[in-house]
Amino acid sequence: MSNKFPVIALPPRTRLSRRDLLGFAARGAASVVVSQSLLLACAADASSATDTTSSTDTSGTTTGTTSGSATCVLTAALTEGPFFVDEKLNRSDIRTDPVTGAISAGVPLTLAFNVSRYASNACTPLTGAYLDVWHCDSTGTYSDVSGSSQKFLRGYQITDANGVAAFTTIYPGWYSGRAVHIHFKLRLYAGSTKSYEFTSQFFFNDTLTDSVYTRSPYSSRGSRNTRNASDGIYNSLSTADKAGLTVQTSRTTDGYAGVINLGVNVG
């Protein structure tokens, strides 16, 4: 599987290591944990466990944490939406356009996905899974569409022995009709044959977005016209899943870090 996708070499740049990202998680970056009807049995079995909990301010940013054993839950699927392009860009820092070398402007955002496989009422790290992430830039523009050859803010990582895939990106911008969000797709392969695929999106606390958008380059665009409460895809979720798919963040020196726990039923 390791030779399926070519690795695209990128120019040297400053980025956080996996250890840094996991350190943010340990210091209190809250997880995106979402529910699904298939999970009822798992939730009952895990009822005696103590979830990791955290306190947040009104912007949705983590300010403290109490650690325990996390309950494994399944993640809610959402539409793929625009614009997935399978460019096979194996890279953790997705800010750069590999064609031009230009780095997307915006507030730094680091993401650590902890991917688990649910089976037999238990969850274990899902290793060797291909996890793609893509989103629009600070102007609300996606790369690699409408004839564009640019490939910024796209890439995949393969989950490691702990089921972790880490990315460095920017806080996404907005475009008309959608709340602020990031797309992701998880795939498994048996040799060259795809054996499993799961797609969803996660959202951001509107108050946090309001704060980020006072900063350059977002501030030059004016107010966005769609918040979470007016987003049709967001509103297709249950109340619990809306809360679960709104990522909690912790502050970093120059931006934010988020940890996303994904639970999938591969079968």
Q: Can you offer a commentary on this structure?
A:
There is one protein chain. With 267 residues, the chain is mostly beta strands. The protein has a single domain (18-47, 81-264), classed as Sandwich (Protocatechuate 3,4-Dioxygenase, subunit A). Helix content is 10%, strand content 30%. The protein has four helices and 13 strands. It has helices at residues 18-26, 40-45, 206-212, 239-244; strands at 31-32, 53-56, 62-66, 108-119, 122-125, 130-134, 154-158, 164-170, 181-190, 193-204, 246-247, 249-251, 256-264. The strands form three sheets. Strands 1, 4, 5, 8, 12 and 13 form a six-stranded mixed β-sheet that branches. A five-stranded mixed β-sheet has the order 7-6-9-10-11. A hairpin with a 5-residue loop joins strand 2 and strand 3 (62-66).
* CATH superfamily descriptor: Aromatic compound dioxygenase
Using the coordinates above, name the CATH class.
Mainly Beta
- Low-confidence region ranges: 1-70
Rounded to an integer in angstroms, the radius of gyration calculated over CA atoms is 18 Å
What is the number of domains?
A: 1
Structural classification: mainly beta
Q: H/E element string? A: HEHEEEEEEEEEHHEEE
**Backbone shape:** globular
Q: Using DSSP, what is the number of strands?
A: 13
Q: What's the main sheet like?
A: 6 strands, mixed
* pLDDT averaged residue by residue: 79
Strand content: 25-35%
Helix content: 10-25%
CATH architecture descriptor text? Sandwich
How many helical stretches?
4
Taking the alpha carbons of the first and last residues, their distance comes to 20 Å
